[in-house]
Amino acid sequence: MIEFHNVTKIYSSNGTKALDNVTLSIAKGEFVFIVGASGAGKSTFLKLIMHEESPTKGSIIVNDMHLEKLKRRKVPYLRRTMGIVFQDFRLISKMTVYENVAFAMRCIGKKNATIKKRVPYILELVGLKDKANDHPSELSGGEQQRVALARALVNNPSLIIADEPTGNVDPEMSFEIMQLLSEINKRGTTVLVVTHEHNLVENFSKRCIKIDDGRVISDTGVAPEMVAI
Amino acid sequence: MSFSSFGYLIKEGFKNMWNNRMMTLASIGVLVSCLVLTGSALMLSINVSNIVDSVGDKNVTTVYLDDDISELEAVYIGKNLEKLDNITTATFYPKDEAIIAYKDVLGEEVFENMTGDDNPLPHAYHVVMDDLSKYDDTVKAMLKIDGVSSVSSRSDVAERLTSLNTLVTMMSFWIILALGIISLFIIANTIRMTMYAHRFEISIMKSVGATNSFVRIPFVIEGVVIGLISSGIAIGLLALLSNAVISAVEHILPFEYIPFSDVMWPIIGAFLVAGVLVGALGSLVSIRRYLKHEGNEILGW
Ligand SMILES: Nc1ncnc2c1ncn2[C@@H]1O[C@H](COP(=O)(O)OP(=O)(O)OP(=O)(O)O)[C@@H](O)[C@H]1O
Ligand SMILES: [Mg+2]
Predict the structure, then answer these.
(1) What's the pTM?
(2) What burial letters (b/e) apply to A127-150, b meaning 16+ CB within 10 Å?
(3) What is the per-residue pLDDT across B184-232, written as a single tens digit (0 to 9) for each?
(4) Is B248 at the interface with chain A, CB within 8 A?
(5) Given CB atoms, is B254 within the 8 Å cutoff of chain A?
(6) Nearest by CB to B207, which of A79, A106, A111?
(7) What number is the ipTM of this complex?
(8) Are strands A215-219 and B61-65 parallel, antiparallel or unpaired?
(9) Domain B60-153 has CATH 3.30.70.3040
(10) Where on the phi/psi map is residue B152: left (φ > 0), alpha (ψ -120 to 50), or beta?
(11) Partner residues linked to A190 by β-bridges
(12) Does residue A109 belong to any structural domain of this protein?
């Protein structure tokens, strides 16, 4: 699913080495936590996966696409295979919950009929069916993040990337969101979660990759339940 | 792309215009002014060259032949005159006919002595030129023909009108060019503002995998609609303006003017095409720039 071979990322604007010779691979269907201090390079790792940034050295393969060979105009098609969730939700405030989720489908040219069927189904999945006509400002942080998650899921991606999805959500809600991600993972979607919250990582006992100063300093490897499969 | 997403994008384009209505109105205003000015320059140019043409038709230049040229030789010279590029017609004006014009002045007796072989006048041709601005070159060419002795100078009015025509044509060209560039700039700037107002949505669009061409469509539609509305208003204004100016000038300078209705369809066509082109081009230019630079990144991540 995701393979990094000796990947180094140096930001040319200020010469910061954000990732330093990283080699790792994440299999299809895995659930992976990425942890590390602020500035360790976690977001950079995610940006490289979605080709928001290109590596300075090394090669990256995502969903069988060799990113160094990927043409600029093909990047949107790479992104359609993944759903992204940000810490700050990134919902459009003047759109309703329904419209926010439908927006992701419109953006890739889906038909109205398809949208009308798919959006309610996904809203039900994240438990927000009765909030469909609310605006994001009327929702709690946890609910907003579930809308963002619904938007990331609606195009049926094979990979979900979440950069500190619980950073702006209170602890109880954080647990719910993580449970939702775990649920989604059980249905076959690969999930990558960057987080600061150690208790969550401990609670869910999944594979955990720790990054420090651009290097992978520990990797628990594939979680026991995955090995069982 | 599916039909429903195209419908969605058109709706978005109109919504953008409404949300950004001050800028939209301002750019429609500038565009209308540009088009009306361009159209006025065009109407002026059309009318001046029409007047020049009609004066030119009446403005017959007389070409005098050498004294010893016989009527037969004159026919040959006439053929050579007509061969010249800028000559529309060359009509033979025999000296027997020319002397008749002087009959009253000379008196019967003198006139009798000047007819036939004793006629002191040379044979001549009346030539009409196609393009009076080439007058000097044409005269030179005519003088080179064997047997041509001199050419009458043309009338002052024609001369002035011709240089006015050249001036108006030149000025119209530069006005049209300058205003075209200004319009492009205005549209590009308006679309740029709209794009900045939507940078958050654009960023989300790109993170969920929208292609650049998809992101572009609402903005191009906005540009084209602004262009079309402007050309529509400009056509109406130009019609009113040119009719008013012609009816005012008609009394002072009694020429035949070409009214707007005579040249309406080509102008309407040109304005609509110009509106669509400027709108589409202006927006494409700024979207391209935006998506290459600021819009190429996911906002603030
Ligand atoms: N666009 C950029 N240009 C230059 N330097 C950058 C850029 N983005 C990140 N960096 C630098 O690269 C390093 C890694 O940043 P990154 O955002 O990957 O860290 P992070 O682990 O996500 O941190 P946090 O937990 O605070 O989000 C940091 O030193 C950061 O300052
Ligand atoms: Mg980060």
Answers:
(1) 0.76
(2) ebeebbeebbeebebbbbbbbbbb
(3) 888 888 888 888 888 999 999 999 999 999 999 888 988 999 999 999 9
(4) no
(5) no
(6) A79
(7) 0.90
(8) unpaired
(9) yes
(10) beta
(11) A159
(12) yes
